[in-house]
Amino acid sequence: MSHQFSQRVAILLIVFAMTITGVTPALAAPPANDDFSSAIVIGSLPYSHSVDNTEATLELDEPESCSAMPQSVWYSFTPISDIVIGTDMDGSSFSDTTFTIYQAVGPGFGGLSLLDCITFSGLSTLSLQAGTTYYIQAGNLISGSGGDLHLNLQEIPPPSNNDFANATVISALPFNESVNTIPASLEVDEPKPTCDFGNSDKTIWYSFTPTTSGPISVSFSSATFMPVTAAYTGNTLANLTEVECRLANVFTIQTTANTTYYFQVQDLFDNGGTLDINIDVTPPIEADISSPPEASIFDSIQFCSNSFDPGGVGIEFLTWDFGDGATGTDFCEIHQYSADGDYTVQLSVTTFDGRTGSTSKVVQIRTHDVSIAKVAAPKSASVGQTKTINVNIKNNRYPEMVSIELYRSVAGGGFHLIGVLTQFVPVRPGNRTSQFTFNYTFSQQDAQVGKVTFKAIVFFENANDDFPADNEAISTPPTRVGRISYP
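The structure assignment produced for this chain is given below.
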């Protein structure tokens, strides 16, 4: 018997003996704030608390609003003034952290209203009201986890550019920064942007005085809310004049040199959040043409504008020049060329605020087309005779490698393949043709039918025929086939 096995047996005997004698092994006590009714009261901020939650439990009917929480501890906080706080569990000894913030709207678990929850680390930023009690339920996600639990709360002050008078002065472009607007507020006399149909009371301000005239764009590379941006001229809240307003991730205005512009940014739905704001000279319009790289004179080509305005204003109108004298003004145009060649297609676009851009693209028109001019077969033949069937190919465009399939008619309808020839076909002007010659020996089956029709089909080896309608022909009249030779 191994020593390790002997130890296990001894432990089991001790536990059994303690059980029959009424003695229960001692367990570590749960933390003091294990229950909701024993929540630790947070007095002031900043606040940080550490507790071992290994033996924490979950009460009957305890809420698990965002995730299963096998054990929890509780905290409560009642601010004496309106405040924005940040809450996290940084510093905890386990990674599967989770916490939920509630507002107390009534007694007990039934009176908790969910505000936010964070799992696997992260910061919760919330606006709290003076005199209202809030509860924080903290713990771990995985049963058997836990350990040294840290809870941290701190007040988040308003952004430095919360007020118009403290607008961030942009000295040079490009400019970018990250900002949290949840603690922001609205001044009494602040203007309401004309494009804001919400009820925001959280704004931040920027100012910029360009040294040269031209378009300026405000964009948001990331934002946890829908930004509303307005631009103004003026120098006090009382005399601001709105220049432009836009509900979008990109906002562009035309600026005049040495004029100061104020940018007011807010959340459409008044929740606030974090955003990355970028202010820069508006990038050029990205004009682009969509069209096939090669087409033929038989094709109706669709040209479409894939142009994009990085300034977010949008394309108002455009003009096309197809390189053969034809023009157009629609977003997508259908055009057909009458001759092969290389054509430079030009596209010019103009935005709603007057900015322009252009691009060009060379379109190759190459028409590959051969046709069967004639299938020549003998007027008559007899069984066992071998005669020639000639297929004449007309080609006025490009030298091509061409294949021809030759078929003969069969009883009951249809055709049967009897041969394939592949050869080079040069360009021959006018009505001159290239000839493919097949040798065919007539059979008893041909004689039983009495007459045979030959069908030829022509196709390219390394290209597509752009006009396949003339790629098939039959011999006429049919060849009469007898059992003896005709004179």
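Interim note for the steering committee: The first strand starts at residue 40 and ends at 42. Confidence is low (pLDDT under 50) at residues 1-27.
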